[in-house]
């Protein structure tokens, strides 16, 4: 066979250490209320500097952004 490599796989019961955080523990919280001054400008600058195109448009209800 060509292109096959050995991969080591472990079951979680074979590991030590702190438990992995649940998805809820690491999910970002949605911001409510007024945003801090200049937040949008700073984020928009980072997006553009990373080479992405930024647009502002109305999304379907329930959407909190799109990437």
- Termini separation comes to 39 Å
The radius of gyration over CA amounts to 21 Å
**The biggest beta sheet, please?**
none
Overall structural class, as computed from helix and strand content, comes to mainly alpha
Quaternary organisation of the protein chains: single chain
Helix content: 10-25%
- Please give the number of β-strands: 0
- Judging from the principal axes of the Cα atoms, what is the shape? extended
User: How much β-strand is present in the residues?
Assistant: under 5%
Give unreliable regions as ranges. none
Outline:
Helix content is 22%, strand content 0%.
How does this model look, in words?
- Helix content is 22%, strand content 0%.
- The protein has 2 helices and no strands.
- It has helices at 23-26, 39-49.
- The chain is extended, with a radius of gyration of 21 Å.
- The mean pLDDT is 86.
Search tags:
mainly alpha, 2 helices, 67 residues, single chain
Indicate the topology.
Elements: H1 23-26, H2 39-49
């Amino acid at each position: 066979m060509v292109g096959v490599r050995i991969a080591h796989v472990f079951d979680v019961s074979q590991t030590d250490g702190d438990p992995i955080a649940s998805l809820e523990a690491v999910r970002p919280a949605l911001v409510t209320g007024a945003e801090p001054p200049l937040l949008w400008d700073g984020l928009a600058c980072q997006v553009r500097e990373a080479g992405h195109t930024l647009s502002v448009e109305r999304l379907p209800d329930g959407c909190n952004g799109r990437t």
